[in-house]
Amino acid sequence: MIHAVLLDYDGTLHDTDTAMKRSLDGILGLDGEELYRIYLYDVHRSLIHTKHLDRHDDIMFHCQLLFQVLNKPYDPKIAELICRKLEQAGRDFSNMKFFEDAAPALKMMKEKGIEIYLSTGKYAEEKAKTFEKYAMETFFRGVFSESKNGFLKTEVRYYVESLKTIGRKPEEVASIGDTILSDIKPAKQAGIKTIWVNRRGEPIPQEPDSMPDNIASNLMEATNIIFKV
Fold this sequence. Notes:
six-stranded parallel beta sheet, Rossmann fold, 2 domains, about 230 residues, alpha/beta
């Protein structure tokens, strides 16, 4: 039975993709949606996740690879502009563009007595406050971030530290998020139940260590899965 959840923010609660796309519009002669798609899938997922995992949080390195993928000469000023736009969009806590099912799903978890912890890479406190301000309700028992835990969210040790703080057995906790590399794979290695919120309709990973225990198309569906596990 699940008693606590580690809940991702970007792409799970918050529609961060839309903010990122808007911030990149017109750069390098591309519309924001196309440029962000290339950045996310052709650079971040295809190259960083497979060949440069140690540079996962290095945005400038991402931008350098972006020019290579686009087969364009590297322009440091434009690269700096892209990095700045992405960083600003990622920490714009006035942007309350949350998914419609976010608040109702958390209310359902709370009513059922599920302990909810925000689990994210950066700005955990700010993100928690932003969501609770939007929902006009307190949800989070606590927050976890890479700086607080001392490890990247892609590392199993991040989840081991989270378990120590929560004080629950791994099988009593579920990690819910939209990213296999940081929300599913390391959590599964720590013995935590995993629910992949696949809002984008991405292909299901075939590697056993990356295969989520459960898959949901949205957060409300993920919430209903919690009560059945």
